[in-house]
């Protein structure tokens, strides 16, 4: 099996080859699939990453979810692999942060407890059908996801879904993976 570092680099390079138009078109299809999921429709508090570069674009989703009345929380990095999720009221709260991310300024009174989350949308560089994931390598999501019982939904382009991903015991498995072509139910039955 290929190692994580090689897979991460290969799939990141492939993802970075997407044009802005391809990112928008593919992301719109993925977001439509997400919004049709019962688990999303029934969720009260949804955590979602704020996309950067050629990741599945979540900004339109965040805006739509806020308009629809969902409580949205986005990550705020604290350094050394730690992050919290904080309520987002408007996309204008986002500003450039460390690691090239967009985040709201940390406001501890708006931090959402991991136990309060119903659903977490998770970025990744590569996934497999069993729910294993390779992220960017910082461990932020694995550390955070280990503290919540929220449903974990990986967002990826179709080419980021492969047969098998090498994994470690501390890696957190996704419940669902959504691509532009399909919804993969990894650890749960379709609802």
Structure notes:
The chain has 191 residues and is of the alpha/beta class. Helices cover 26% and strands 25% of the residues. It has helices spanning 4-16, 20-36, 38-41, 59-67, 140-145, and strands at 45-48, 71-79, 82-88, 95-96, 102-103, 111-112, 119-122, 126-128, 133-134, 151-155, 161-162, 176-178, 183-185. It has an eight-stranded mixed sheet with strand order 6-3-2-1-7-10-12-13. Strand 1, helix 4 (59-67) and strand 2 (71-79) form a beta-alpha-beta unit. The radius of gyration is 15 Å and the shape is globular. The mean pLDDT is 92.
Short description:
With 191 residues, the chain is α/β, with parallel strands linked by helices. The chain is 26% helix and 25% strand.
Helical content stands at: 25-40%
Question: In terms of quaternary structure, what is this?
Answer: single chain
The helix-and-strand class reads alpha/beta
> Proportion of β residues?
25-35%
Mean pLDDT over all positions = 92
Spatial sequence of strands, sheet with the most strands: 6-3-2-1-7-10-12-13
Q: C-alpha Rg, in Å?
A: 15 Å
The SSE string, one letter per element, is: HHHEHEEEEEEEEHEEEE
Shape: globular
Strand element count:
13
Largest sheet: 8 strands, mixed
Q: How far do the termini sit from each other?
A: 33 Å
In the predicted model, the low-confidence regions spanning at least 5 consecutive residues are: none
Count of discrete alpha- or pi-helical segments spanning 4 or more residues: 5
Q: What brief labels describe this structure?
A:
191 residues; alpha/beta; eight-stranded mixed beta sheet; 5 helices; 13 strands; globular
